[in-house]
Amino acid sequence: ELVLHREFPSSLAGRSILDLPLRRTKPTTTTGGGKERQHFGDRVGSGASRGYRGDMGDSVTDFVEVARAHIARGAVVVPGDADEVWKDECAYTFSNAFGEGGVLVSLKTWVAYSPETLQLALESPCQSAGGLFLRIRKTKVERDPEGSKGKADDEAPVTEFALGTENGFKLDEQKYEVREQLSLLAVPENAEVDLPCGDLPLVVGECVKAVLEHKDGHTESLISEWKEELVTSKYADALIQLPDPKPVSSDPSKWRCASCGAKTNLWLNLSDGYVGCGRRNFDGSGGCGAALTHFEATGSIYPLAVKLGTITPKGADVFSSAA
């Protein structure tokens, strides 16, 4: 059943959806300059009883007419593959889809707002006439909390320093099922309808689908920022390795810096077997910098060193001191 959720005081019975007032919360949110912000609270709760209903006949039909008016004003733009969509967090706060009221994503600018900050969208010149906003609400439900498999997973010891692997730390999506609830809010009419709704114009469905399928812009920027580019060092192909280097003990407790005797942050030179510590940090920790000093003292021809303790069958931390 499709139900239109909206503010509908009894004193306004029989009036158009376009006449419906915006709801204010108490106390009213304020920002710099003393401007009052309208609060677009949660109209769609865990059950239909939390929505506002009025005797307006076919409420879905009324909402569709409101949506068509916004579309005619250019309030719905389908994002392309190269466009950035910010849908996971409010652009002004840390509010996300798991919070009360979820997030509200503009179908014109693809920027997310919280119910408390949605008024800021209306202060933008490109959306001063209002528009359509996709409300995304999410809840977490524990996966099989009483099942034997769930218990075994929870009790399994972590033996690998990794996220999401069989022996590593479990990610939220492995422990919880995320349930999503979608609705469409028309502002300033303050009318809302649950999704999916087959009566809405096709462009609305296309826009909603594109927004949901896009990766969040913030997530994309983090991936780009933290993505490690793995390159093959030009020194690896013709690495000089001296004969009969000093052997390194297989017992980590016996590892020492050849210069200062430090036991941590040790680097093994892959050419001559020299073990020295890393660079000194600003606070004095980290090491005496013997590994780099050794590289410079030997003519800068032994550039590659591996950090002791990181060597595994899958790889190791190798650093090149060459410029």
Measured by DSSP, the beta-strand proportion falls in 15-25%
Biggest sheet details: 6 strands, antiparallel
Number of strands: 12
What are the segments in which pLDDT stays under 50 over at least 5 consecutive residues?
1-57, 222-227
Q: In DSSP terms, counting alpha (H) and pi (I) runs of 4 or more, how many helices?
A: 8
Quick tags:
alpha+beta, 323 residues, single chain, disordered N terminus, elongated, four-stranded antiparallel beta sheet, six-stranded antiparallel beta sheet
Structure description:
- There is one protein chain.
- The protein is of the alpha+beta class.
- Helix content is 20%, strand content 17%.
- It contains eight helices and twelve strands.
- The chain has helices spanning 59-72, 119-122, 148-155, 172-175, 202-213, 217-226, 234-237, 290-297, and strands at 4-6, 29-30, 36-37, 103-106, 112-113, 131-142, 176-187, 191-194, 266-269, 275-277, 304-307, 318-320.
- A six-stranded antiparallel β-sheet has the order 1-8-7-6-4-5. A four-stranded antiparallel β-sheet has the order 10-9-11-12, covered by helices on one side. Strands 2-3 form a two-stranded antiparallel ribbon.
- Strand 2 (29-30) and strand 3 form a beta hairpin.
- The protein is elongated, with a radius of gyration of 30 Å.
- The model is unreliable at 1-57 and 222-227 (pLDDT under 50).
